[in-house]
Predict the structure.
Amino acid sequence: MPSRIIVSRELADLLKLLAHPDRLRLIEELRLGEQDVSSIAAALDLPATRVSQHLAPLRAHRIVEDRREGRNHFYRLTHPGIAAWIVEALDFVDVRNRFGEGSHIDHVRELWTADAPETSS
């Protein structure tokens, strides 16, 4: 029984970490592969400082890894399957919005699955 408690807490911590729209978008952007902060910022239309602030906790929790090349930091997902997991979670949003305007969810699903590399989970 204690292992269920530990695992539940770890999963809750992960979900708290992901509970920010910019972080979800960041993860979905990195599904395409390694990128530097400037590229991510441009793709998400966010200031580079904000992208860096969101990358810090993702790196601390080993969701992303970075490497340095000169003055640039390049980031990639440590487990690319997390991006697919987020897309699968759209089904729950879809259910919640079934009676409202749901076409935006379909559009996001198309964007987030376009050109995604194959992942082995």
